Amino acid sequence: MSANENPAPAEKKIVIEFAGPYHVHGNIPLVRKTQIVSEHGEPLTWKKEGTLETKGDYDLCRCGKSRDKPICDATHCEINFDGTETADTGTTATRQEIMGGTQIVVKRDTSLCSESGFCGTRFAKIEKLVAETNDTNIRSQVIAMIERCPSGSLTYALAADQPDSEPDLPPQIAVTTEITAEGPIDGPLWVTGNIPIERADGQPFETRNRVALCSCGRSKNKPLCDGAHRVKENRGH
Q1: Does 188 sit behind a cis peptide bond, omega within 30 degrees of 0 on the bond before it?
Q2: For residues 92 and 112, is the Cβ–Cβ distance under 8 A?
Q3: Span 154-165, pLDDT tens digits
Q4: DSSP 3-state assignment of 13?
Q5: What band does 8 get if pLDDT is binned at 50, 70 and 90?
Q6: Which of 16, 42, 87, 112 is deepest in the core (most CB within 10 A)?
Q7: How many structural domains compose the chain?
Q8: Is 31 a residue whose pLDDT tops 90?
Q9: Domain check: are 80 and 126 in the same one?
Q10: How many other C-beta atoms are found inside a 10 Å radius of the C-beta of residue 50?
Q11: Are residues 120 and 171 in the same domain?
């Protein structure tokens, strides 16, 4: 390599350690994001709260017990953390259910759902709204709900023969905070921008634009978040 050449940038990827942390490669930006909710507690969108300083590769806590969260401090070794990965490694296209829609095709992959709550209000859930998407205002609301879903469980296409439309999200990992009636709680790690994720056994997960990774250690669908952190008896541990 000549003095004028720069080394190729490291590949951005996340590699999961068996019963251990997420190894983050490729200098992926790490930020904080907080839910914005309505006066009735309905999740509306996300607010970026800042960027966390990282240097090159870093390890993120997966067991939920690190004293230096979101960074791993090896507490998983002390508590015999069970990080067994059970999430389906197939493609979302083979699992999606078509929910319908007018001038829009709404799809749902329930195996990815993190129960984040962006898919409904106190008046209507997305299932009801999809049936009313002949109304442009309703269609716009449905699209906004889908694009704010952190897990990518919900997607949409503009026609049956067109690919899913995805929001333009940067390659980054967001440490999320969710707002509940009892106060803020730690949410999942929100991975965006088509960053590859690899299981501990080397098997890759489908690379997707939006992924919600478990950060509490209690998901039954590891490494994906399944909403277990919202169960009240799990909080504060």
Answers
A1: no
A2: yes
A3: 999 999 999 999
A4: strand
A5: low
A6: 112
A7: 2
A8: yes
A9: no
A10: 8
A11: no
Contact 106, 157 (CB under 8 A): no
Report pLDDT digits (tens) over 143-152: 999 999 999 9
Q: Which two tokens stand for residue 169?
A: 């999200």
Indicate if 25 and 126 belong to the same structural domain.
no
Report residue 164 as tokens. Answer: 């899913």
For the beta carbon of residue 15, count every other beta carbon within 10 angstroms.
Answer: 17
CA distances to 8, 40, 108 from 48, rounded to whole Å, are 30, 21, 26
User: Tokens at residue 51, please?
Assistant: 């960027």
Report pTM. Answer: 0.93
Q: Which two tokens stand for residue 178?
A: 């969710």
pLDDT given at position 232:
72
Indicate whether 126 and 32 sit together in one domain.
no
The percent of residues in the chain predicted with pLDDT above 90, rounded, is 91
